Every structure is written in C-alpha cells, then in structure tokens.
C-alpha cells in the first residue's frame, strides 16, 4: 500500500527521519521547477535554467524544514514564496546586473510615478516613452531587458536597491507575515491601495496579471490567449508591475510627507513659544497690584 504524502508529513514531524525528508523533497521537486518556470526570466537571460532550479530547491528544502502542518496552511502556499525568494536572493548575490540597468529601472519607475501623479491615471507606453525621451521600441526593449532582472512582485518597493528589509508587493499578500494589530492595519491599507492601483490598469494588463498570478499560466500560454508574442507578454507584464510599483511609491511618499507635516508644525510652535515672553496670568497680575 502506497503511503500518502500526509502520512509522510505526520511521520516526519514525529521522527524527523532523514529518509522521510528525502521523500518529501522528491515529492515536491516539481513544485520548485514550476515556481522557477513562472518567474518570467526570458530565454535570452545569462542564467542557466538548471542553476535557477537548483536555487529553488534550496528554498524548497528550507520550507520543508520549517513547515508545520498543524498551522492549517497548505505546504504549496507556504513553500512557493520561499522558493521564489531563494532564487532571487541567489541572483542578487551574483551581482551580475550592471549599474546602468539599475539606473534605467529607477528611471522608468520614477517616470511612471511622476506621470501618474500628474495624469491621475497610469501612463500609456507613448506617454512614458516621450517623458523619458526614447522611442516606443526603445521603451519596450527596456521593459524586456528589465524582465531579465527577475523584477517581480518580490522586488522591494520604492527603490531598486534591493534592500533586505524593504516591503515588496508580494509581502502584502502573505497573511502569515503579519504579526500584530498595527501591522495588520498597515497591511490592510497597503492592500487596499494595491487593489485600487490594479483597478486603474488598462484591461489588457489586468487580464495578464490575472492569468499569470491567479490562474498561474505560463508566458507561452498567456501569449496564445492574448494572441501576441511571448516577448510582448514579458513587456506588458513588466509595464503592469512598474505601474503598480509607481502607484505604491506615490502612496508611500505621500504617507511620509503626511507624517512629517504635523511634526514640523509642532516644532515650529515650540520655537515660537520659546521666542516669546511668557504672558502673566490674571492671578499673577492681581497679586502684583
């Protein structure tokens, strides 16, 4: 009689036997390959697919070691962000991305954020290209090149510096990372802003994100549905993600300014108070008389 994966998990949690761990790794290995395949790294990338899958397996093994079935979370849901994160962390450590590429990504994000603030809607390709002083073809090529950097929902918000502690779009969708009431309120606000930003996207970009992140289709499958090339799907996906990042950057910038304004007013009031002589109270004036 074949042992079910649930039985293997039960035995492994009770005994931590190495052979059971190996069975779990073998059982979930296709998940690592699937997650890596959906990162959207184009065939022109300098990275070898098998190396990426190897990085994904590191994340998978880490997930197996840390998973607790009693929490009621499906293993696939628990492991997927860790597999993605392991791949992205390894790529960052390679430091293969040139500074010029990072500069271009910052330029695109800042341009889209500025245009959205001015237009009160996501900018079109034509508007973004004109603002950056490049042609439509050059702008699209920039988007395609950016997809090779594994810029996705996992990239930190507000900067391309890839800080370890920065919030990412995918962080907003993982309830297990929320630890307390304050974090829950902040997360709810950010998720609301993200949902509103998605609703403002053109219908084609909304459809693409739904097919990719919700239906979990591959780039090739989406290209067939939308009747465009696979490279064009990469471009559109990057533009959609950059629009979302720009919206979140605008929101976070506004929040930072809002927090600073009351503080500045309070400090100004304190300075004015120190600069004026204290007025005597009515009681003090009577006692003096």
SSE layout and pairings?
Elements: H1 5-15, H2 18-37, H3 49-66, H4 75-94, H5 99-119, H6 125-132, H7 136-147, H8 181-200, H9 203-214, H10 219-226, H11 230-275, H12 282-288
Helix pairs in contact: 1-2, 2-3, 2-4, 3-4, 5-6, 5-11, 6-7, 7-11, 8-11, 9-11, 10-11
Biased composition (Basic residues): 271-280
Domain RNA polymerase sigma-70 region: 24-96, 106-184, 197-246
Region (Disordered): 252-289
Shape: globular
Radius of gyration: 25 Å
Note the run of SSEs as H and E: HHHHHHHHHHHH
Average pLDDT across residues? 78
Percentage of residues in strands: under 5%
Structural class: mainly alpha
The total domain count is 2
What top-tier CATH class of the largest domain fits best?
Mainly Alpha
Distance between the termini: 104 Å
CATH-defined fold name of the largest domain: Butyryl-CoA Dehydrogenase, subunit A, domain 3
Low-confidence stretches: 156-167, 173-178
Please work out how many helical segments DSSP would assign: 12
Please state the second-level CATH architecture of the largest domain. Up-down Bundle
Q: Tell me roughly what share of residues is in helical segments.
A: over 70%
> What's the count of strands?
0
Main β-sheet, in a few words?
Answer: none
Keywords: DNA-binding, Sigma factor, Transcription, Transcription regulation
Domain RNA polymerase sigma-70 region: 24-96, 106-184, 197-246
InterPro entries: RNA_pol_sigma-70_dom, RNA_pol_sigma70, RNA_pol_sigma70_r2, RNA_pol_sigma70_r3, RNA_pol_sigma70_r4, RNA_pol_sigma_FliA_WhiG, RNA_pol_sigma_r2, RNA_pol_sigma_r3/r4-like
Biased composition (Basic residues): 271-280
């Amino acid at each position: 009689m074949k042992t079910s994966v649930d039985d293997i998990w039960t035995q492994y949690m009770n005994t931590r036997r190495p052979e059971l761990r190996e069975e779990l790794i073998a059982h979930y290995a296709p998940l690592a390959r699937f997650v890596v395949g959906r990162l959207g790294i184009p065939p022109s990338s300098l990275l070898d697919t098998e190396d990426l899958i190897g990085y994904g397996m590191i994340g998978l093994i880490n997930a197996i070691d840390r998973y607790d079935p009693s929490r009621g979370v499906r293993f696939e849901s628990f492991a997927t962000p860790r597999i993605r994160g392991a791949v992205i962390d390894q790529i960052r450590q390679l430091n293969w991305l040139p500074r010029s590429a990072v500069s271009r990504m910052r330029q695109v994000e800042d341009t889209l954020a500025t245009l959205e603030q001015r237009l009160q809607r996501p900018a079109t390709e034509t508007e973004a290209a004109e603002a950056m002083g490049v042609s439509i073809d050059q702008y699209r090529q920039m988007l395609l090149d950016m997809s090779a950097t594994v810029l996705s929902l996992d990239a930190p918000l507000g900067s391309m510096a890839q800080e370890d502690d920065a919030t990412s779009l995918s962080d907003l969708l993982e309830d297990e990372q929320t630890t307390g009431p304050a974090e829950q309120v902040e997360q709810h606000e950010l998720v609301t802003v993200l949902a509103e930003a998605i609703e403002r996207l053109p219908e084609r970009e909304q459809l693409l994100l739904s097919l990719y992140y919700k239906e979990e289709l591959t780039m090739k499958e989406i290209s067939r549905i939308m009747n465009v090339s696979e490279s064009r799907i990469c471009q559109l996906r990057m533009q959609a993600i950059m629009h979302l990042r720009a919206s979140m950057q605008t929101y976070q910038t506004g929040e930072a300014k809002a927090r600073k304004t009351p503080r500045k007013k309070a400090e100004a009031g304190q300075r004015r108070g120190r600069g004026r002589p204290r007025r005597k109270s009515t009681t003090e004036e009577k006692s003096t008389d």
